[in-house]
């Protein structure tokens, strides 16, 4: 399994696909590289797909510190590209990954040709703080099962919760494998996120997508990103909630394909 050694910790990554254009995917909060399973086969047909687990996720190493800063995660991704000898990528970030992507585009603009931000935040507001607190309290009170149950209405649309019941037991089992202490350090990094003052400095062509039933990263946040990033475009996915990689993988891929070239 491929790992990148950086500053006394290991980061897990995967490279796959048949295409020549590199597409880098940034995970959501509790995701790992494996979470892109529904989308990867479609994307691999067109792109050279680069995925990594950020510090605190999946198979990457966790270190004991109060917070994993978004800027540090962005720099780790840049170090991975240097390690792979990739000069520039098409970058797609989902949720937490979309926040890291904003910092990546600010700190390493020469490494990004185009950027797609999916279901993400321009800033971590008071509501986001309370949601994160409720998840941590649920973990303390009832472990991963209660945390999963409490998170459901924030992550999924009403349509998915009705039609996708068969997936929920497997998703709950996956949620139980997450190292919550590490996720809380990731969340602590999110709490400091506020890109509103510098979105106008981003020069990367950007497309934003959001589900119209996304309660976790709602439409107003997507509009802040669209209004703040020069020339950014916005698409709203009808009937979709927050977890677009699970609810709307084909639509997600289609937007990636459509925005891949000018």
TrEMBL record:
Pfam families: Abhydrolase_6. GO terms for molecular function: hydrolase activity. Gene3D superfamilies: alpha/beta hydrolase. Residues 25-253 form the AB hydrolase-1 domain. Keywords: Hydrolase. InterPro entries: AB_hydrolase_1 (IPR000073), AB_hydrolase_fold (IPR029058), AB_hydrolase_sf (IPR050266), Epox_hydrolase-like (IPR000639). Transmembrane segments: none annotated. This is Alpha/beta fold hydrolase. It comes from Vogesella aquatica. The lineage of its organism: Bacteria, Pseudomonadati, Pseudomonadota, Betaproteobacteria, Neisseriales.
């Amino acid at each position: 399994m491929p790992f990148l050694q950086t500053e006394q910790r290991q980061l897990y990554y995967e490279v796959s696909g048949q295409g020549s254009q590199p597409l880098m995917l940034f995970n959501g909060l509790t995701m790992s590289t494996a979470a892109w399973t529904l989308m990867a086969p479609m994307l691999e047909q067109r792109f050279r797909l680069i995925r990594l687990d950020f510090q605190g996720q999946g198979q990457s190493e966790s270190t004991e510190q109060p917070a994993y800063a978004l800027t540090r995660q962005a720099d780790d991704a840049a170090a991975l590209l240097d390690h792979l000898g990739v000069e520039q990528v098409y970058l797609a970030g989902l949720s937490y990954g979309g926040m890291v992507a904003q910092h990546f585009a600010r700190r390493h603009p020469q490494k990004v040709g185009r950027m797609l931000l999916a279901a993400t935040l321009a800033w971590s507001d008071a509501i986001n703080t309370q949601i994160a607190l409720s998840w941590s309290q649920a973990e303390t009170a009832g472990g991963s099962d209660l945390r999963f149950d409490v998170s459901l209405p924030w992550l999924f649309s009403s349509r998915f919760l009705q039609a996708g019941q068969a997936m929920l037991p497997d998703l709950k089992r996956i949620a139980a494998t997450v190292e919550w202490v590490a996720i809380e350090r990731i969340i602590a990094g999110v709490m400091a996120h506020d890109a509103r003052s510098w979105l106008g400095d981003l020069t990367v062509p950007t497309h934003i997508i959001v589900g119209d039933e996304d309660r976790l990263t709602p439409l107003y946040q997507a509009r802040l990103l669209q209004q703040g990033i020069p020339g950014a475009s916005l698409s709203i996915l009808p009937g979709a909630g927050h977890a677009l990689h699970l609810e709307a993988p084909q639509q997600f891929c289609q937007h990636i394909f459509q925005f891949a070239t000018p």
